[in-house]
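User: Can you predict the 3D structure of DUF2179 domain-containing protein? Sequence below.
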Amino acid sequence: MKRITMKNIRQALLMLVALEIIAISINLFYAPHQVAAGGATGIAILLEAAFNWNVSLVVLVINLVMLVLSYLFLGKGTTLRIMAGSFLLPVFLALTPQVKVVNDRLLAVIVGGAIFAIGLSILYRIDASSGGTSVPPLIIKKYFQIKPSISLLVIDGIVCFFNIFVSGTEAFILALFSSVITSILMNYIETGLDRKRAVYIMSNEDLAEIKIRLLQRLEKGLTVFAVTGGYTGVEREMLMLVVENQDYQDVINQIHAVDSTAFIFTTPITEIHGGQI
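Assistant: Sure. Here are the predicted C-alpha cells for DUF2179 domain-containing protein:
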C-alpha cells in the first residue's frame, strides 16, 4: 500500500483550493453575465443561458463522458490522473453560489479571467486537471500528432463562438478577451513572477577589470565562458551573470564605465534552480 506523505497531503489541499478558485471564477463572474470562455464550464454556461440547465450537472456529465473517452483512448493512467478533478469540480460548482458580484460585464470577465488563470495554474503546478475539454486534445495528439495547445484553442474558440447565438456578439468578444487575459496571466504565473535577466559581456581589453568591478559592486557570483569567434577564430572569455530587473541598469552603467564599447547582450529569465558555482 502506498504511503501517504506530507507532499501528497499538500498537493491534495492545493488541488481543492485550485478547484474552488475555478468555481468562484465561473459562478461569480462568468455565469451571471452569460459569458462562456471555453471548456466544459463554458459549454455549461451556454446551456444554462439557453435552457436553464444546472451548470454543475452539465459539467459533471461532460466530465463523465470525457473520462470514458480517456479510458478508451488514453489508458488507465491518464484517466486516474484527471478523475479526481473531474468529479470534484462539479461539486465545488454546486456548493459555490452563483451571484453577480460585479455588474459591469467587461470588469467581470477581466477579474474572472484572472481568477480562473490562478486556479488553472495551481492545477498545472501539481500536475492535476479539472478534466473536461482537456481530454480531446490529448486524444487528437495521440492519433493525429497535432499539438494539444492548437486543438484546445480550436475547441475553446468554438465554445466562444456559440456565445453569439446564446448571449450575443458582445458576449463572444468578451469571451475571446477573457481567454487572452487567462492565457497571458497563466504564462506569467507558471513561469514565475520573479523575473530576472542574464547578461553576457565581452570586451577586447578590459574584461578582467569589468569582472572585478561587477564582483565588488554586486557582491554576487558570475560565470566565465571560454568562447571562440566564429569569424576571426580568436579565443577569448565571456562573462555571464544573472541580475534582478531593478539592478540591470546599474550593471550596464558599471560595464560602460570601464569599456563603453563592450559587447553586451541580455536575455530574460523566468526561473532559476540550484546554487552558484
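Residues 136 and 241 are 43 Å apart (CA to CA). The longest helix spans residues 6-30.
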